[in-house]
From TrEMBL:
Keywords: NAD, Oxidoreductase. Residues 165-278 form the 3-hydroxyisobutyrate dehydrogenase-like NAD-binding domain. This is Tartronate semialdehyde reductase. The lineage of its organism: Bacteria, Bacillati, Bacillota, Clostridia, Halanaerobiales. It comes from the Bacteria.
Length: 291
């Protein structure tokens, strides 16, 4: 079994790393948070203090970091992976970042003979713990096939969608559609409530029809209960939409609905709702419609 270096032991990375250990992989971990590192070492991992050392001591390197600057720093920065890698190694980045940055990091590592897969996920903390996240992967097909078994330990579905950057692009598509859907559910229910109809009855009446969706099933009950605890934090969704607009500016894509959703999310966060779930768009309509 391949020796794996794993960097980024947060909400998602920690359980995913544990699943790899449970499956019998030898893991060397790294994180800025010493407590998370200790938890993994107690679970059976080894640890090293820089990304460079992780690269020097593993065959496959995995990262699960917050955003593009973190991945760039870990991969290409001082004491980064690029200073320790050898030709033939594989780098798998599971973070949700800009596809443009994935392509930039992949090009730099390829000069050292290292292939990269961009492999962001959907499925959240529960999926990470259960090993059932959905992977959307970009990169070389041969490299994908050779490393698919590692991803299958952590994921319920593992799909190659195209060349490097395609995984991140697919994740952004997911976030565009989910964000707009949540806003649609919130707007519809707030209209019904303002018109004097019980929103719970509305939900039950329409959930089986064309308006129904996985998004509605997940978010409507929480909106009805006024429960906006995360879940998937709205500020992470804003991060993903920011990466979307960075790419869409390059492509000159028209995206009015995603732009509107982004405005609503920004407004809620700037009003102090910094830790709410992305379903907190319900709160936006409650406030504006006085319901
Ligand atoms: P998190 O903030 O909980 O964890 C990130 C970890 O990276 C932290 O432990 C942090 O200490 C570590 N880190 C940051 N910079 C580092 C560095 N330079 N060196 C080493 N470690 C460093 O984030 P998360 O919720 O685990 O999310 C990770 C990625 O997965 C994000 O891109 C997020 O958008 C994506 N994602 C999250 C969810 C979710 O529900 N939380 C779902 C799908 C995808």
């Amino acid at each position: 079994m391949k020796k794996i270096g794993f960097i980024g032991l947060g909400i998602m990375g920690k359980p995913m790393a544990k699943n790899l250990i449970d499956a019998g992989y030898e893991l060397i971990v790294n994180d800025l948070n010493e407590e998370s590192v200790k938890e993994l070492v107690d679970y059976g991992a080894a640890s090293l203090s820089t990304a460079k050392e992780i690269a020097e001591n593993s065959e496959v390197i995995i990262t699960m970091l917050p955003n593009s600057p973190h991945v760039k720093a870990v991969a290409l920065g001082e004491n980064g992976l690029i200073e320790g890698v050898k030709s033939g190694q594989v780098f798998i980045d599971m973070s949700s970042i800009s596809p443009l940055v994935s392509q930039e990091v992949a090009a730099a590592l390829l000069e050292k003979g290292v292939e990269m897969l961009d492999a962001p996920v959907s499925g959240g903390q529960e999926g990470a713990e259960a090993g059932t996240v959905a992977f959307m992967v970009g990169g070389n097909e041969k490299v994908f096939k050779a490393n698919k078994a590692i991803l299958e330990v952590m994921g319920g579905s593992v799909t190659l969608v195209g060349d490097i950057g395609a995984g991140e692009t697919t994740k952004l598509v997911n976030q565009i559609i989910v964000g707009i859907n949540i806003a649609a559910v919130a707007e519809g229910l707030s209209f019904g409530k303002k018109a004097g109809v019980d929103p719970e009855k509305i939900f039950n009446a329409i959930r089986g029809g064309l308006a129904g969706s996985q998004c509605m099933e997940d978010k409507a009950p929480r909106m009805l209960a006024g429960n906006y605890d995360p879940g998937f934090k709205m500020k992470l969704h804003v991060k993903d939409l920011t990466n979307t607009f960075e790419t869409s500016r390059e492509l000159h894509t028209y995206m009015p609905l995603a732009a509107q959703v982004m405005e609503m999310m920004q407004k809620l966060i700037s009003d102090g709702h910094t830790e709410v779930d992305h379903g907190g768009l319900g709160l936006f309509y409650e406030k504006l419609n006085n319901i």
